[in-house]
Give the backbone structure.
Amino acid sequence: MSAGYHHHTSEPSSQRKDLKTLQSLLPYLWAYRGRVLLALAALILSKVAIVAVPLVLKEIVDALDASKNKELTLPLLFLVAYGVLRLAGSAFNELRDSAFARVRHGAMRRMSHKVVEHLHALSLRYHLERKTGAITRDLERGTRSVSSLLNYMVFSIIPILVEVGLIAIILLGNYSPWFAVVTFITVAIYIAITMLITEWRMKFRVTMNQMDSQANNQAIDSLLNYETVKYFGNEDYELQRYNQTLQHWENAAVKSQTSLSALNIGQGAIIATGVTIIMFMAANAVVAGTMSLGDLVLVNAFMIQMFIPLNFLGVVYSQLKHALSDMERMFTLLKEEPEIKDKADAGTLVVGDAGVRFEQVSFHYDASRPILKDVDFSIQPGQKLAIVGPSGAGKSTLARLLFRFYEVSAGRILINDQDISDVTQQSLRDVIGIVPQDTVLFNDSIYHNIAYARISASRDQVIEAARLAHIDEFIQSLPDGYETIVGERGLKLSGGEKQRVAIARAVLKNPKILIFDEATSSLDSKSEQAILEALREIASHHTTLVIAHRLSTIVDADQILVLDSGRIVEQGNHAELLEHDGAYKHLWQLQQKEQQQRNQEARLQEQVAR
């Protein structure tokens, strides 16, 4: 799995880990402390009422015991009390549930919000390495586990503890201490066996979770790459991989179920033994005359009442452990540190007239493979600077460094004489607009995708931006116009249409600094000329950085840098670089030749068509 996503096994004992996870949850609960106290109070009152029911039942049985009382009368008071206590037990239970609902769902909401906020704060490198399918599944399971953990604590574990405590007090106070001793020993053995077997069963569950995430990830990945799968006819291969993972999941799931049955048999045996011993002792005491028939009913009712919730303890304990392990993965994700952080004293960028300067900038992802070496240049306010060079020369990395998706390894980048590492990322990104090489769109309307650049923009401003990007006519020609849904990642639009949406976005944002990262790469020559015209209009009042593959698009640049293997090998304007017999001239001649060939082919096709 990706960074921060392997399952930790070499950490301290799982108990310590579980405690830490619970500690991480406390701040989310502290926000609702009043409701938590109310829910706990309702829980205790409901248990008091439930434990009092057998006491009243004993009085009713004794009042109706013909062997003790010669004249039988209806024990009205006790019968009413019996009904009232039963009602109180369930009423306080409902009160506990409703008081706790806000805590449970509120903690889930805050947690989900926090995780997604954190994912947005993590750096580009993390997101390039992550596996979306696995993360969404872990996020979903993590937030669900918060709810289940709180559920089990408040609705199962604490109630069992309160009930066992109350019953033990009553048994010790009224009867032979042996009743309490046997009860305690039975409960202790029951809990110990349950925990041991459940702990052993956990490994099946962990395997199930891992395989579930992996299968989910494989399915999403193969569907996102639907076209690639089809190109190479690899449907069977993808299904086979998916099925293999699901088989591992199935085997673990079967083992999980069969071991659960074994656990249930063990639990049943312990309860049956404990209850039989206690009933034997009680019946003996009734015969000996030290206990009444009502006492026998009372002890029996207590046993049944206590062991019914204990029956679910195995399930509860295993679910608790799963919830804790799911939550631990989520908290591990929250501990993942963003690579790019604002300094404590970071100020706001004052963009001024937006001059940009790269001073001796070097950059590497990995020290053994430098990507940029000593890159040094400046873009004067309002100027257009173009960067050309072979692919892999580091052109797009310059744009990412300026946008501060990565920190420079050496040197510094200045905007209006301020080092961009000293200002907040937000204020830096507010003044830069980017038209990327590969535009990814939201699965929403074209209008939403353009307006995304400035959420507060009016409809007229959005349409004006589309007009400047020469896409308004195309949008108007669609049956749903601006409300046309673009499909997941914009798949329903062609490359050229997507790039025009990206250009419209940049226009709407109206930033001081514009970056065009091979912004016309998916256009034909005719569209390219129209867009270049639009870009010239837009860029005339901005400081512009153009990363270009086709040299014809940057002939008018004030300055052109030729980048090769991370170094600037030539710089000057178009005319100067052509005079200088170097890499640029060679590239230019090559592309001119290609263009002539394309023109010839186009003319031939026209003639054939005639």
About this structure: Strands lie at 356-366, 369-379, 384-388, 410-415, 418-419, 432-435, 513-517, 543-547, 559-564, 567-572. The radius of gyration is 36 Å. Residues 14-335 form a domain with the ABC transporter transmembrane region fold fold (CATH 1.20.1560.10). Confidence is low (pLDDT under 50) at residues 1-12.
